[in-house]
Amino acid sequence: MTLFYIVISLLIIQRITELIIAKRNEKWVLSRGGVEHGREHYYLIVTLHVSFLLALVLETTYFSSGISPLWPVLLPLIILTQIIRYWAIASLGYYWNTRIIIIPDHEVVSKGPYQFMRHPNYVVVAAEILFLPLLFSAYATAILFSILNAFMMLIRIPAEEKALRQHTNYQKAFTNKRRFLPK
User: Fold this and answer.
1) How many domains does the chain have?
2) Residue (of 103, 158, 150, 107) closest to 127 by Cα position
3) pLDDT at residue 126 above 90?
């Protein structure tokens, strides 16, 4: 259980740090004429992620059988997702955010993992929502929140892509790139 509390503490610190970075980036983008899209569903994303953390803690604390025997596979996958997450965040720089805020007529970022696929950060989130609970044998959390996240992405990604197509060179920049898998 000690490993779980270390991991969950690091995850919470990571999320708080990301919210601080997102707020800083939000101010930067808005000061340059950025326009927010998808505001009506943003609370669902926040609710999903907070609920995921709570479910992970509750299931691991009260129902888990401990660390998975697959930990030698899952732990490197989790570490890989974190590397890709920070690669995506660094590649987007001030454009990275937890919200959809677009500066009209700016070119989309197509470097870093974005040179291979359109939505590497969403792939990372989906992998994390699956692999973290599996690492600690929290199977219900892994299944439930993977399904909920998939439904959330059915709302989020079309809203983001619509905003990007309307205000940037997104269509041209990502014509030959798949959403989630490298081509």
Assistant:
1) 1
2) 150
3) yes
CB atoms under 10 Å from CB of 116, counted, come to: 13
Task: Provide the residue type at 49 as one letter.
Answer: H
Domain with 127 in it: 2-7+38-173
Tell me how far CA of residue 134 lies from CA of 29, 41, 101, 117, 145, in angstroms.
37, 28, 33, 26, 12
Cβ-Cβ contacts under 8 Å for 14 (sequence gap 6 or more): none
51 domain-assigned: yes
In a domain, 64, yes or no: yes
CATH number for 159: 1.20.120.1630
70: closest CA among 78, 62, 59? 78
Instruction: Judge whether 21 lies within some domain.
Output: no
- Quick check: is 13 in a domain? no
- Joined together, the tokens standing for residue 77 give 């996958």
36 DSSP β-pair partners: 101
Tokens of 1: 């259980």
How confident is the model over 1-54, as pLDDT tens digits?
688 999 999 999 999 999 999 999 999 999 999 999 999 999 999 999 999 999
- pLDDT the model gives residue 2: 86
